[in-house]
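Researcher: Next sequence.
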Amino acid sequence: LFLFDIKLSLEYNFTRKGTFMKLKKIIILLLVFLFIGCTKNEIDINTFIDVANFNGYIISENKDEYKGYNYIKNVHYAINREGMYFIQFLELEDDEVAKRFFELNKEEFVKYKDSNTYTKTMNSMDYNLYHLETEESYKLVIRSKSNIMYIDAPIDYINEIEEFLAELDIVY
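Model: Next structure:
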């Protein structure tokens, strides 16, 4: 009877520890996949311009608009064919400036939020996205490392904008 109790006790502890180790491995794998899933490729100006040109947008560079703002390195606009909206791409001095820029624009968009709006937020270390749709407008701000992409367009162009974003590999 004593040996039976020891054997039962060892089997119980071994099984418990084995289950614990399996559970620990599963949790670690899930965390790795979540981290990889939240990490986005950096959106750079060359890709932005290439995709915009391919989709028939008119490209404009206008650093003069932000003269005196030393933390803004470059500003490009992709203007749709009809001139009804534009997508702004800013290259900023560093990640910290981009984070502040993102938060300020997000706060501006949140002012339009009501019971009939749709919002989506994504955050990781190098990437932030805030999207808001109202009955009249489509608003999106994305930070990818030290770059910002900003859209504030009439809702009528949602399909065109989302096609453009998909080609940039931005799916949310």
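Model: Strands lie at 58-61, 72-79, 86-92, 118-123, 127-133, 137-144, 147-154. The first strand starts at residue 58 and ends at 61.
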